[in-house]
């Protein structure tokens, strides 16, 4: 005998433009099962029309984020045995256009990330003709920033993004911080032309939902405060 989970899953049929919910009961007999395993079980055994997205199945690609009992999370990293309820309401990520059922359109994330120029901007020639050297200490400053998998969980949990879709959002701002704190980067002025207004670093109300939900335990809110400090000290 395993644990019986009752799932209410949001559904959207784009052909009929119809929104509804489906209810499923799944007995989880394997202690290692994740929410993604439950989705796959439903699709294989109960309802092959249920649509969800995943790729790596191990917390790397960022494609499987959904909302469970109101909280954004990665389906592939959500272990059933650690959930605090057997009744689960599963919805798509909040604030994004729904394509079908649990699959949302992430393209807004890509546009926002592109707008902060997520690459090194280097103006001087490198000291070595092979590479731009970075010290171990400077490299360590990027810990807690470079690990983002662009899952969108933080953006979906951000009340500012819900109200203002032109806000760059926690994920793009974290990405900006990752490059602007890089000792090899010389693009602060260019990036602050994009970042230093109410749709950028001053749009955040420091609610820190982003930190609460990030599956990689990153802190986009802290990165935004770091960017504000950097902007104040800009020469
Ligand atoms: S900061 Fe965390 S929650 Fe936000 S997109 Fe990156 S990995 Fe996902
Ligand atoms: S399937 Fe890749 S992060 Fe979940």
From TrEMBL:
Binds 1 [3Fe-4S] cluster. Keywords: 2Fe-2S, 3Fe-4S, 4Fe-4S, Electron transport, Iron, Iron-sulfur, Metal-binding, Oxidoreductase, Transport, Tricarboxylic acid cycle. GO terms for molecular function: 2 iron, 2 sulfur cluster binding; 3 iron, 4 sulfur cluster binding; 4 iron, 4 sulfur cluster binding; electron transfer activity; metal ion binding; succinate dehydrogenase (quinone) activity. The keyword Metal-binding applies. Residues 5-96 form the 2Fe-2S ferredoxin-type domain. Its cofactor is [3Fe-4S] cluster; [4Fe-4S] cluster; [2Fe-2S] cluster. It is an enzyme of class 1 (oxidoreductase). Pathway: Carbohydrate metabolism; tricarboxylic acid cycle; fumarate from succinate (bacterial route): step 1/1. One of its GO terms (biological process) is respiratory electron transport chain. Its EC number is 1.3.5.1. It catalyses: a quinone + succinate = fumarate + a quinol. InterPro entries: 2Fe-2S_ferredoxin-like_sf (IPR036010), 2Fe-2S_ferredoxin-type (IPR001041), 2Fe2S_fd_BS (IPR006058), 4Fe4S_Fe-S-bd (IPR017896), 4Fe4S_Fe_S_CS (IPR017900), Beta-grasp_dom_sf (IPR012675), Helical_ferredxn (IPR009051), SDH/FRD_Iron-Sulfur (IPR050573). Residues 138-160 form the 4Fe-4S ferredoxin-type domain. Belongs to the succinate dehydrogenase/fumarate reductase iron-sulfur protein family. PANTHER family: SUCCINATE DEHYDROGENASE [UBIQUINONE] IRON-SULFUR SUBUNIT, MITOCHONDRIAL, SUCCINATE DEHYDROGENASE IRON-SULFUR PROTEIN. This is Succinate dehydrogenase iron-sulfur subunit.
């Amino acid at each position: 005998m395993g644990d019986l989970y009752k799932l209410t899953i949001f559904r959207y049929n784009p052909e009929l433009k119809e929104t509804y919910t489906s209810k499923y009961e799944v007995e989880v007999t394997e202690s290692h099962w994740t929410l993604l395993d439950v989705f796959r079980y439903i699709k294989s055994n109960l309802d092959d029309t249920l649509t969800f997205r995943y790729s790596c199945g191990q917390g790397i690609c960022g494609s499987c984020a959904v909302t469970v009992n109101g909280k954004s999370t990665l389906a592939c990293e959500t272990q059933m045995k650690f959930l605090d309820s057997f009744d689960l309401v599963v919805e798509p990520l909040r604030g994004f256009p729904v394509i079908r059922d649990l699959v949302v359109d992430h393209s807004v994330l890509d546009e926002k990330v592109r707008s902060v120029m997520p690459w090194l901007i280097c103006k001087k020639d490198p000291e070595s003709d092979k590479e731009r050297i970075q010290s171990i200490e400077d490299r360590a400053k990027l810990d807690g920033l470079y690990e983002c998998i662009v899952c969108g969980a933080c953006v979906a949990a951000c009340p500012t993004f819900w109200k203002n879709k032109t806000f760059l959002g926690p994920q793009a701002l974290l990405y900006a911080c990752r490059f602007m704190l890089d000792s090899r980067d010389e693009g602060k002025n260019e990036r602050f032309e994009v970042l230093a207004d109410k749709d950028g670093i001053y749009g955040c109300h420091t609610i820190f939902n982003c930190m609460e939900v990030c599956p990689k335990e990153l802190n986009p809110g802290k990165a935004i405060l770091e960017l504000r400090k950097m902007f104040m000290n800009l020469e």
